[in-house]
Amino acid sequence: MKSQTYRVSCYVENKPGVLARIVGLVSGRGYNIQTLEVGPTEDGSVSRMKMEIPGSEPAIEQIVLQLRNQVNVMEASFRKAGR
Amino acid sequence: MAKKETRSGAEAVVESLEAAGVEAVFGYPGGAVLDIFDFLTGAKFPFVLGRHEQGCIHMADGYARATGKPGTCIVTSGPGATNIVTGLATANIDGIPLVAITGQVSLPLIGTDAFQEADTTGLTRSVSKHNFLVHSADEIPETIAEAYYIATHGKPGPVVIDIPKNCQQAMTSAQYPERVSLRAYHPESWATAPEIARLAKLVNEAERPVIYAGGGVIASEAAKEVAALAHRADIPVATTLMGLGAFDENDPLSLRMAGMHGTPAANMAINEADLVIALGVRFSDRVTGRLSKYAPAAKIVHIDCDRASIGKNVRAALGITADVKDALTAVASRIKAAKRPEWTARVRGRLEEKPASWKRSRPGVIMPQEAIEAIGRAAKGRAIVATDVGQHQMWAAQFLRHAKPRRFLTSGGMGTMGFGIPAAIGAAVARPDLKPVAIVGDGGAQMTFEEVVVAVERSLPVAFFVINNGCLGMVRQWQELFYRKNYSGSILTPGGRAANEKIDAECVKNGRYLPDFVQLAKAHGAAAWRVTDPAKLDAAVARAIRSKKTTLVEIVVDPGANVYPMIPAGRTVADTVYGN
Predict the structure, then answer these.
(1) Burial of residue B548 (number of CB atoms within 10 Å: 0-12, 13-18, 19+)
(2) pTM of the model as a whole
(3) Looking at domain B7-172, which CATH architecture does it have?
C-alpha cells in the first residue's frame, strides 16, 4: 500500500484528556504525527485539531473512523496533504 | 432513590449507582476508595468482595456477559487500578459493557508521586471505551450516568471513572440526571431504505448463502431474528467463538463454529459461498486466515453497529452500520422463502464427513475432548459455562452443544488467561437459575485461583473443572507444530523441562503435578475430587453438576492431545490440518 502524508482534522470537545486520547489513538497504532495544531474554535467549548500523518489510505481511514467513535469527537475527516 | 439535599461525593456515588439500576457490585477496597466503601454497607445492591482486582473485574465482566446488563467494579487507586487493566482490555475487545470506578489520590496530590498514585486515565485510555477523571463532587452523579450510557450505547464497552479522594469527601447537592445527552456522542445508526432493499436483493438472489454470526448478534439480542432469516431462506449458519449460542447448534442449519479451530463444514461453506451474510462480527484474523483467500467466491454483506469495523479487514459489497436486530427486523418482510436442499445438504454433510479427529480415551488416560463431552452430557443444557483460554477453551467451543445466547462466556479477542474462574462467579451471581460451570486449564487456574473462596463464602454452586494436562497446552501444541518440539517454558510438571529450566531435584523425583488442585480447592473451602480413570469420568463430573455446593473436579487428561482441525495462522481452508 502506497504511503503518503494525509491531513486529518477533527473537531473535539475542549476538555482535559481529549488531546491525549486522540494523540494516543494515532501513536498506539504505530503512526507518527508529523505536525499537530490545536486551538479553540469561535465556540470556545470546541477545539479544532489538525494533524499531518504519513500512512496508507486504508490505515488513515481506519484512524478517522476510530476517531469518530470517540466520545469527545464531534467530527473527523482526512485528505491528502500538500494540496 | 434518596434525594438528599447535600451529601458527600462518596454517598453520591452509591446513590447514583442505585439510580443507574445497578444490581451487584464487585470490588476490593483500599485507601483511595474508603469513603465510597463506607457507604456500600447501606447500599441497595449486594457487594461482592473479590480477592484480587483482576478477579473483581472479570467477575463484573462475567456478570455482564451473562445478563447483557453492565457490570460494575470498584477498586482503589494505584495498584488497584493497574490490576484491572487486563480485565478492561478483555471487555473492551469483546464489546462487554462495564463501569469501573477507581479511587484516585486527592486532586492536589496528583502528579506528586503520592502513595498509591498512578495515572489511571492514562493507563486505561487505550483499553477502555472511554474514561473520566472527576474534578469535583458536583460532577459525580452526572458522570456516573454518562458512564452507564456510554458503556451500553453503540458498541458496548468498559468505561472507567477515576474519582479523587477529596471529591469523595467534598459535599455536593448535585442530583442524578433524568436523561443523558452527550454533545459529541451519537452512536445510534439505522439501515437506510436503499440498504435494506439491497440487502434483500442480495439474499434473494444468492444461490449459496451462508450466515456468519458473531458476538454482535448476542449483544443486540438478535438470535431470534437470525434464526428467522436462516429458516425462511434456508441459509446455513456458522458462528464465531464470540457468537456461540447466537444460533442453536442442534438446528439442522447449524454449521457450528468457523475459524482456525472451527468445523471444516463452516470453513468450507464460507469458502464456497456466493454470499456471506456477516452479522455482528469483526473478521478477526483467527477466523479469516489469509485475507486474500477468504470467501473467494462470495459477495460479503457486513452488518455491524461499529462503522469502524466495516471494511477494516475484508471489503464488503454491502456494509450496513446498524444494530443487527434492527436491520434484520427491517429486512424480514422482503426476504423470499426459499429452499436450497442441494447446498444445505452439501455443507451440512461435512459435519459428519470431516469431524475433528481425535483418539478415544484408553484405559487410565482420559482424553480432554471426552472430558468436555462429559460436562455437556451432565449439564443437559441447564448450565452457564465460563472458560479460560487455550486448548480447553477450543475443546469447550467444539464439544459442547451451544444452544442459547449468553450461556458460553469466553475471552475471545484478548485471550485472557485467568478469566474463567472469576467470570463463572460473576455468572453465578447473575443467573442463580442456571448451573454455573467453569472449564479451565491448569495454567489459567493458577492465575486467579484465589477467587474460588468467593464462590465458597457466598454458597455459589459453581462447578470448577480443571482440565489438567500438566502443561500450557496450546503453547505446547504450537511448539510441537511450529517450533521443532522445543517445549520452552510450557511444561508445568517437574519432568520434561529444558536443562536451563532446572528445578529442585526432590520435586523432579516426586514427579507429580503441582499444585495439588484437590488440596488447594479444599483449602479454599470447596468440595473437590480428582478423576484419572475414563470409566469414572461421567460419575465424577455429574456429581459436581448435581451438587448445590461449590465444587472442583481435577480431570487429569492426556498431556499430548492437540486441538484439531486447525487452519494454521495466515493460511487458508485448503491447508486445514485434521490431526497428527
Answers:
(1) exposed
(2) 0.96
(3) 3-Layer(aba) Sandwich (3.40)
Mutation test of the interface with chain B: which of A21, A46, A69, choosing the one with the most B Cβ atoms within 10 A? A69
Q: Do A69 and B306 touch (CB under 8 A)?
A: yes
The fold of A4-80 is Alpha-Beta Plaits (3.30.70)
Equal fold, B7-172 vs B193-353: yes
CA distances B49 to B318, B419, B503, B550, Å, are: 47, 17, 36, 17
Nearest chain B residue (CA) to A76: B184
Which class is domain B368-556? alpha beta
Residue B88 has pLDDT above 60, yes or no: yes
Angle separating helix axes B473-482 and B391-399, nearest 10 degrees:
100
Interface test with B, best of A14, A48, A65, A71 (most B CBs within 10 A): A71
pLDDT at B496: 78
Considering only CB atoms, A71 lies closest to which of B121, B182, B306, namely: B182
Q: Which class is domain B193-353?
A: alpha beta
**How many Å separate Cα B356 from the centre of its chain?**
24
Answer whether A62 sits within 8 Å of B182, measured CB to CB.
no
- Which tens digit of pLDDT belongs to each residue from A22-80? 999 999 989 999 999 999 999 999 999 999 999 999 999 999 999 999 999 999 999 99
User: What average pLDDT score do residues B90-110 get?
Assistant: 98
Residue boundaries of the structural domains of chain B: 7-172, 193-353, 368-556
User: Could you give the CA distance from residue B426 to residue B96 in angstroms, rounded to a whole number?
Assistant: 13
